[in-house]
UniProtKB/TrEMBL annotation:
Lineage: Eukaryota, Viridiplantae, Chlorophyta, Pyramimonadophyceae, Pyramimonadales
Acidic residues composition-biased segments: 8-80
Pfam families, alphabetized: HA2_C, Helicase_C, WHD_HA2
Ranges for domain Helicase C-terminal: 62-235
Region (Disordered): 1-83
Protein's UniProt keywords contain Nucleotide-binding: yes
Protein name in UniProt: Helicase C-terminal domain-containing protein
Native source organism of the sequence: Cymbomonas tetramitiformis
Superkingdom per UniProt: Eukaryota
Alphabetical keyword list: ATP-binding, Helicase, Hydrolase, Nucleotide-binding
GO MF annotation: an example: helicase activity
Keyword Oxidoreductase in annotation: no
Family: Belongs to the DExH box helicase family.
Amino acid sequence: MRMRMRDEDEEEDATSAEDEDEDEDEDEDEDEDEDEDATSAGEDEDEDEDEDEDEDEDAEDDEEEDEEEDEEEDEEEDETSGIGEIMTLLERIGGSHHFAPSRGRHVLLPLHSSVSPADQRLIFAPTRHGVRKIVLATNIAETSITVEDVVYVVDTGRVKEQRYDVRRHVTGLVEGWVARASSRQRRGRAGRTRPGHCFALYTRHRAEQVMAAHQQPEMVRVPLVELCLQVKLLGLGAVQGFLARAIDPPSTDAVQDAVATLEEVGALDAEEALTPLGRHLAALPIDVRAGKLLVLGASLGCLDPALTIAAYMSYKSPFASAHDMRDAAERARVALAATGSGTLAAGQQCDQLVVVTVYDGWRAARKRGGRRAAAAYCKQQFLSAETLEMLREMREQFAVLLAEIGFIQRPARAVERSAGQNVGRLSMEEWVDAPEQPWNKHALQPAVVKAVLCAGLYANVAMMDTTQPHS
């Protein structure tokens, strides 16, 4: 996070253009070397402070750190974008005399994708007279949502973007300056329903001469595996030659890396021709390794856990990612592996099998006692109910895709349930999850599930030797 809160008084200047609707020329310039030309018509919102309220003075702090607090937690990217920076700033603002919540004059609210829907709704709720709302947000507030009563935006001009490192084969978040197009979006967050102001914490020179006009196209900064697979499916010739004709063509190294990945997975042969597996994977609009996992899971009789693992790989972990709950969630995860007897995770040092176990537990609780029992299970295991619901929906979508390419059957007619009553056909979820289905006959055998997992994720597989001491 690049917003420098030099001291509480300066913080109050940047955020509290509220207190007297003074012309806040005293924003802290986030620029390292240039004078404070704070381009007030402002640009972006890496951290925009929107202090809102019935009074004409509100401000939203949108800390634009595209996604996720830590590059190393890449599976949680979309969900924890900039959360560490947001919580740090929240603590610093809340710890100041002027903004302390105990004074009852300000409401401090974080906004990022891992905030629960209930807490997100607080962002849009009006505050009582005399109380200002300060929202600290990631770039989710740049275009995804609009807080209507925002009057002031403080923009640091910073952003984290997903970038793919071809040499290291790693996708991570890289911090940099926003593009001018994005800065205009941030500026537009101010004054949606009345005149507003945007304070940009960088110089006019940087805005006009250093920042790019537009964000780099995705084609030149993300993995190209799925795109290359579609090129081959459509019979468009050699991947390298076809993509070279794009307006902003990707690098040769990036294309070669994607083709090598497809060959490693088995989707392309040595002549760059599409294989039968490749044709199946091209019909599954997900990461090719997750798709291969589903195909193998259905073929080897452990589709139920394979669906859960593929959904988890494509979305995020169901364990709570809130800043103050991570340690407790990690302890719960470790405890499941150590004590979850009778489950796939029992005695296994495998995150994927732990996720399968907690999903199965949540599903059983939901079936047994409805939403209340499911919520209690989530609280006990430090799980996100919203994430588990999303995983459930993704599992069903994946099952439909597998049915469309012939790996499983759909429930085509009415099915008699327990007690001999014919109450209509089963839902896709019930049909696919049923343990008696041929595609689930080995679903409770850890050895088979781990074999499918390793085959699907190869060569991204590692083994830990627990017999050797670790430094």
